[in-house]
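[Q] Does anyone have a clean structure-token version of this?
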Amino acid sequence: MTILETAGAAGLSDPILRLRGVSRAFPKGAGEVRVLDEVDLSLRGGEIVGLLGRSGSGKSTLLRIIAGLIRPSGGEVIYRGQPVEGPAEGIAMVFQTFALFPWLTVLQNVETGLEALRVPPREARRRALFAIDLIGLDGFESAYPRELSGGMRQRVGFARALVVEPTVLLLDEPFSALDVLTAETIRTDLLDLWIENRLPIKSMLLVTHNIEEAVFMCDRILIFSSNPGRVSDEIRVSFPHPRDRLDPEFRQLVDDIYARMTARQTMGPAGPAPKLHLASWLPRVSTNMMAGLIETVAAPPYDGNADLPEIARNLQLEVDDLFPVAEILQHLGFAEVREGDIRLTPDARNFAELDPQSRKTMFAHHLLASVPLAQHIRRVLDERPGHRAPRVRFEQELEDYLSDSAAEETLDAVIDWGRYAEIFAYNDQAAMFSLEDPKPEPVD
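[A] Here you go.
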């Protein structure tokens, strides 16, 4: 029987944590950039809830709002019946990066979690040693972070969060910086402690972009859409722990989530998603990744039509690796992505058979036909007498509509694609676009 099953109806009916209409926006020019929009969710005793979505969708920002580290622009966070207006006692967080103090030992790093609570030194030492032993680091109390592997450092992060005996544990992609085997070991150990009721917490909220991780760990999964971030779907995971990744029911749920997420990303409310416009955010997907996915899907056994979950498993790619490539191929007219499947267009099938220069020519045609920013840069260069333009000229246009980081990523993506397609040149040192590559200086 799982903790969820033993929590009882009363515990499940009374949320420990509730978010109502939480929004977060940042001023931008005359307007604002909205990161989160009207987020509603609840967290009850005895459950693990997953926030599943792409990087940049605002999931980590939401966790920091819940923890009281930043304030929302609108809405409210209610923890145990009281609004969260600052760092909340009883809510702890484990970060993606280990965030350890390098000059402190394992024991000292864990004890820092108790200093703000003014726990007496003897009690702090007892609790820290218990947390270290619980998380599997017994014997390493006097070691420094530099002496530990990545997995051991993340265990210290877990111990530091657990030592304060929180009611709610927030997990911000805690396994994503680890190698696959280490992540699986720590993930399984944490679940074992949870199932055995050995953790001093009542519920967990896990931010992830790994679909299998969400299905493996969570009782409910909230799918987060992007730009701005909001809860677009909720999925209940009904089968008990421990879960078998090879079980047909497990695999079917993973496939279903892939289908839902690709439908959200590639279809609008009334049909196909709108075409790109000048200030559309674009992920920095390499042309090598695009060509590689085209070649993979074009070859047997897929022959032009593949299941994205199967591709992800075979190539060991996660959502943040695979989805952006598939979406950009769709925007460029090389693929159709729908309900978890990717189907190559005739041009993409042809692309897979072409020589490198012919590929560039075809890519250039699709890029100029499909990406307004690439069209705009080329048009400006064509019209200027010197056929040159500074990067800042286009970056400032994008920053009227996108955050600074999103504008930078979008422009970098189009620079990469335009250089590959040879529709313009770009000098990184001078931050200058041109229609011709500068001639190399003569060598003495």
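[Q] Thanks! Anything notable?
[A] The radius of gyration is 25 Å.
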